[in-house]
Amino acid sequence: MNSSFFLILLLFFFTFSPGCQLKPEVDNVSSNEKTGVSLDTTPPTPAFDTLPIDRRAEYIMGKFDPATHPGFVPLDESYTDRPGMQLRSDTYHYFLMMAEHAALDTIKLVIRSATRNFDQQKSIWERKWEGKTLLEDRLDARQISDPAERARAILRYSSMPGTSRHHWGTDVDLNAFTNKYFEEGEGKRIYDWLLSHASTYGFCQPYTSKDNGRTGYEEEKWHWSFTPVSAVLTQVAKTTLANTDIQGFLGADQAGTIGVIENYVLGIDQSCHEPH
Ligand SMILES: [Zn+2]
Q1: CATH number of the CATH domain containing 90
Q2: Listed residues: CB within 5 A of ion ligand 1
């Protein structure tokens, strides 16, 4: 165990956890005035401290099995669209509080995707690279002959293996995978609720509109991230990962040309860079 890393973890859990009280005598259970929901703001036990320092890059790149990692928990199927998903325990703790509040407002949050490790992301990426899964507008990536352009086309909505925030166990895709769903009817009601309340529980939307100059992936109104942990992991990625570390899948040699770390991993909304 590297003690400085452990201290950083303690620092951010005792500094940045949503609603966390630094003074121990302060009651750590408060109520949401509007809904009456009791919000237990006790910081969850940090799980990341079980990770040896020399495994940090492997964790960031998703080179582990979340089903057996001690910091991860299985998700209750009442909050997912299928069995077998996992999240970090701290992220899930705050997601459950958010989902409970949402339910009182007749909003049903459904996790469509949670943690994906390197191997799962490699499968998604290579299916697109080889044209087995078509891109948006039914485009076959094989029709794009320039390999950097082919990778960029896939990168509109899919991460290169090793660079996905879904590796971290802090990020979820909610309810539907199209922005259109969230722009009208029930989807708009869900998105508006998230815009109003998600930050209360520590969640941010990393991939917002690119109109403000953000680089990287297109807007994803379904993708939400548990900022108290993911902002720290973003910094770990920034200081630990190089484009040359991104290897082991078809098209990986384009990572440097594209600048996948600086333009995509770090191309997130400002609200996700700083814990709330
Ligand atoms: Zn996502």
Answers
A1: 3.30.1380.10
A2: 173, 223
